[in-house]
Known about the structure:
alpha+beta, Heat Shock Protein 90, Actin, Chain A, domain 4, six-stranded mixed beta sheet, three-stranded antiparallel beta sheet, 9 strands, flat
Amino acid sequence: MKNYRLLAVALCGIVLLLAGCKTKMDSHAFNSITSLSQITPSEIQTQNLTLADSITVNGVNGTVKLDIDFPESGNFFVINNIREWMSEQMGGTYEGRTEDGERMLNHYKSSTLADFQENIIPDMPPVPDVSCYKDIKIKKLQETDRFVTYLYTQEGYSGGAHGWYLMEGQTFRKSDGRRIDYDIFREESKDDLAQLIMDNIYTQYFEGNKEQFENSLTMENNDFFPLPVSAPIFREDGVEFIYQQYEISCYAAGLPACVIPYDLIEPFLTQAGRSLVGASHVAEN
């Protein structure tokens, strides 16, 4: 009986905390909490949702494809944040219930086709056999008892000399759904972290050819090497840092990226970051 009382008190406390929070939360999603297991760290169960459709305007085809590992169950705060992030990645215009994955995908399918019809295809040159497309994939990449990482990729063509491709990841802390970004790296260490990333990309892509490396950079000041705009991606063997097309180099360079092992990353992390990756000395403190 005592344990049930403790569980009841815990649930009441969470309800009161959320009620006083200024951040607006989807009330329908919150009402789906029916057990304590939904607010404790647990494995994220997903359902693969796929959708494809096309439209033809003035003989030009426009195709959209969506392929998503949609979170179905697990810690409420984690899966709610994942669903919101997914929607934001696809445009952030969906106003329905975040737990309705099929409705979310249909919304972004329809909005993409409408954009093709109203904006993109009318502006494309009348080239025979030309078509435009957008392919989106959101996949669960890595999951541990402390975090889960999703990977978002998008490729497409909407006219011009070539298409586009982007790849971004997002890691979520499983205890509370926190989105992991560069704030888990110590502020005073970020310049050194950027230098470590640069050294890895330099070695990996240019094999020690300093002149070729410097000539490939499109930044105005080559003495300053920035951290990527996209969030760090926590993988099984380390943290991946990805630069998007044109971010630091030309289109032909693609998406320069590197994975730095956790033992090299640990000195740059805050205590929260070390706890996230399970650094050995954390358990000893």
